[in-house]
Amino acid sequence: MRLFVGIDLPHELRIELASLRTSLPGARWVPEENWHLTLRFVGEVTPNQAEDVDLALATLRGKRFALTLTGLGTHTRNGREVALWAGVERSPALEHLQNKVETAMQRAGLAPERKRFMPHVTVARLDIISEAKLPAYVQAHNLFRAGPVEIDHLTLFSSQLGKEAAVYTPEVAYPLG
Ligand code: 3AM
């Protein structure tokens, strides 16, 4: 199974994120049920490894924190903008928690993550036609801000890749103290 650790966004943040889904030709909006903040991509694991991941997360002592979404940005691939995301306000508490998750995943036997943590919520995949419209869109939504909202649990998600969109399912929730 394919797994990742993240934050299932509270209702308050979802309402605000929905305001971003305005007209942007060529944007394929991520279905609302898939909105999340990834803390650690785990990838394909065996059932035994999944158990180790679950155990490591269950013993992690993380603290609640306040999550604020702010601003917009894009991911580029081969010089092309391919995804639109809402940013996350810098937060030492979130970084601390992400570090703990990383340590837990290494304890579960995963190789260290080499990529720097760049928290974001992906809201749309972009086709070529949306690129030309992006500057105006980004300008119109630049002041996007949602929260702060208290986050009181981590979530282990499974991810099933499909032809149209992936299906992300919250599998286990781990309370934060
Ligand atoms: O938070 P987002 O939606 O950007 O991009 C994938 C998605 O992130 C990312 O994990 C989240 C759930 O699938 N992802 C997928 N494959 C990945 C990989 N090989 C990856 N992140 C890092 N390495």
Write the layout of secondary structure elements.
Layout: E1 2-8, H1 11-18, E2 27-29, E3 36-44, H2 47-58, E4 65-77, E5 80-88, H3 92-107, E6 120-126, H4 128-141, E7 145-151, E8 153-160, E9 167-175
Antiparallel strand pairs: 1-3, 1-8, 2-6, 4-5, 4-7, 5-6, 8-9
Helix pairs in contact: 2-3
Bound molecules: ligand 3AM.
Task: Note down, in words, how this protein is organized.
This protein has a single domain (about 1-175), classed as Alpha-Beta Complex (Cyclic Phosphodiesterase, Chain: A). Helix 2 (about 45-60) crosses helix 3. It has a five-stranded antiparallel sheet, with helices on one face. It has a four-stranded antiparallel sheet with strand order 3-1-8-9, covered by helices on one side. By secondary structure, it is of the alpha+beta class. It starts with a strand and ends with a strand. Strand 8 (about 155-160) and strand 9 (about 165-175) form a beta hairpin. The protein is built from four helices and nine strands; from the N terminus they run E-H-E-E-H-E-E-H-E-H-E-E-E. The mean pLDDT is about 95. Bound molecules: ligand 3AM.
